[in-house]
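Quick question: what would this complex look like in 3D?
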Amino acid sequence: MIMTPLARVALPVLIALAALLPLPAAADAVPTEMDPVAAARLVKLSEKLRCLVCQNQSIAESNAELATDLRRQIREQIAAGKSDDEIVAYMVARYGDFVLYQPPVKATTLLLWAGPALLLFAGFFFLIRNLRRRTVTEPALTAEEQARAARLLAGDNGKLDQ
Amino acid sequence: MNKRLLLPLVVFLVLAGFLFAGLWRDPRQVPSPLIDKPAPQFSLARLDDPAAKLGTADMKGQVWLLNVWASWCVSCREEHPLLVELGKAKVVPIVGLNYKDEPSAGRKWLAQFGDPYTTSVIDRDGNVGIDFGVYGVPETFVIDKNGTIRYKQIGPVTAEALEKTILPLVRELQKS
């Protein structure tokens, strides 16, 4: 690393000063007073739920204010003794199935769930049909060709072709 | 011509059709499950007079709009002149939900840009917002005489949305 003379002096001083400062208390690092089981439930639940503000992030990942609020809601509801299903139902009642990364199986989502399997079966169907057709259309030898093949196998090769 | 050769073309056209339709859909417009459901009950302190309260129950018997706004919300300024105009016309009461805002900042904002609201209420921690499934301020709900949510506008109210959707719906609901 290339340092200017000033930086050479200033850097150790800054490092020493930084060590003296108390660590800034980040909002997220405040002790949540949760037992580890409840904390694990909070993480698991919030990972299953989509943040509606930044839609490609879960509530666990997102830093949007709404996600913070929803994490707080989940925490409060866990503390109130609600089950996971009840908490998920609470979210779905407000934000719809869209909050679930794993949509429920319903009439409207049937194609979504069955789609990959349907495509796989369709693929197998066409594959098998094609393979069958290929074996059937293998041309049978005519009598003349059969005789020639027999001669070839017997070792008369040279004479025939000349 | 061999019909089987047309199959990839058909598959392509179907796929292209879906993708083309997708171009005009806004992924931020998440349909609310609360449409045609009773509006969540709330009773919150009023912005103009925090000692007094206003809630869902007080609005029963009339068609009303619930507009979620905040002084920190940029798009709220966009829709605000329209709301001020609507407020002046006194067609329909508009209740403002001052969402996750500093009440003093909210009052200042109304003094600066005009106050279209019959009443604004303070939702400091955003819990009522969550009950209404709010995720992008501003949002506007049309609520009927029985307290049922009939329509939700996500994002700013536009002149088009107001004239083509919200006002006709309000008039129809007021008749019933």
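Answer marked as accepted. The radius of gyration of chain B is 20 Å.
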